[in-house]
Each structure stands twice: as structure tokens, then as C-alpha cells.
Amino acid sequence: MANIKSQIKRTKQSEVRRIKNKSVKSKLKTLISSFNNAVKEKDKEKASSILNETTKALDKAASKKIIHKNNAANKKAKLTKKFANLVKKVAEEIKKVPKAVSKTEEEAPKITKEKAVVKKSVKSTKIKKAATKTATKKDTKKPAAKKNTAKTSTTKKASSTAKKKTTAKKTEPKKKA
Asked: 172 burial class (0-12, 13-18, 19+ CB within 10 angstroms)?
């Protein structure tokens, strides 16, 4: 044990930090293992919620420097890759399942047709609103354009008068000499 007061304090602090870091690392491991279990069970919803939790925990641990940021990035990449593969497998299994009920298939297109009509009417109203906004914007832009042309013409005049003055000064010393 150290005899110096500051060293004693430092060892106490490092011990407290070690215990906290240990609990955070343990939590990360349990989250990752629960995500892997959800993937094995092919539970897409559960896996997505656990994936969000795990990525947050990994980012937090990396920001507090409990784990290295590249370590956190690698773990997140592996987890998202597993989740993407899970989604693909679930989609393939859904395609393989035969269509059992024909009534639900007949009802589904009717619903989509109704939604399409509603979407078209909403789009048409949005287009009308956008057209009126652009018309008002065009009116407001015209005076601004006139102001800009006036500014450019005055700056050109000022620069041409400045050139005349400088040329006059250059010729004066020659006359005196």
C-alpha cells in the first residue's frame, strides 16, 4: 500500500471506477447474448428492440471510454449484420408459406384502392398549396432582383471613378519632375 496521500486517493478512485466499468461491461454482454437468443428464435420485433438498446449502450460505453470506440463500432456492425440476415430469412420464409385464405386476398386490394384514392386527393391539395406558395414567392423575389442590379451598377461607377483618380495621380508626378 502506498504511503502518499494522493496515491491512496488515486487507488480508491480507480477501484470504484473498475467496479462501475465491470458492471457496464457485464450489462453489454447480457444485452448481446439476449439479442443473439432473439435471433436464434427468429423473433424479428424482439431482436430489433434489443438491437436498439444494445447500440445505445455500446455508444454510451464508448463515449465514457469504458470500451474503445472501434470495439463498439465493430460490435454494432456485427449485430446489425445478424439482424439483416434475420430479416432476409424471415422474408424468405414468408414467401415459401402457401396462401391459405383467399378471402383476405380479395379484401386487401379493395383497401389499397381506397387508400390510393385518398392519397391522390391529398397529393392534389398539396400541389395546389405549393403552387400558391411559389406564386407568392415569385412576387417577393422580383423587387429584390431590382435592388441587386442597382447595387451592382453603383459599385461599377464607384470603381470606375476610383480608377480615374489613380490614373490622374500617376500623371501628376511626371509633370512635376
From this structure: exposed
CA distance linking residue 68 with residue 58, whole number of Å: 10
Domain that holds residue 39: 10-99
pLDDT at 120: 54
Q: Within 13 Å, how many C-alpha atoms sit on residue 166's CB side?
A: 6
How many domains does the structure of the chain reveal? 1
Contact 37, 86 (CB under 8 A): no
For residue 41, CA distances in Å to 46, 67, 90 come to 10, 29, 11
pTM over 0.85: no
Per-residue pLDDT tens digits for 120-173: 555 556 666 666 665 555 555 545 545 554 455 555 555 555 555 555 555 555
CA-to-CA distance for 25 and 31, rounded, in angstroms? 10
**Cα 151 → chain centroid:** 41
> How far apart are alpha carbons 53 and 47 in whole angstroms?
10
- Those residues with Cβ within 8 angstroms of residue 89's Cβ, 6 or more apart along the chain or in another chain: 42
Identify whether the C-beta of residue 19 lies closer than 8 Å to the C-beta of residue 61.
no
Distance CA 41, CA 44 (A): 9
Q: Does residue 161 fall inside a structural domain? A: no
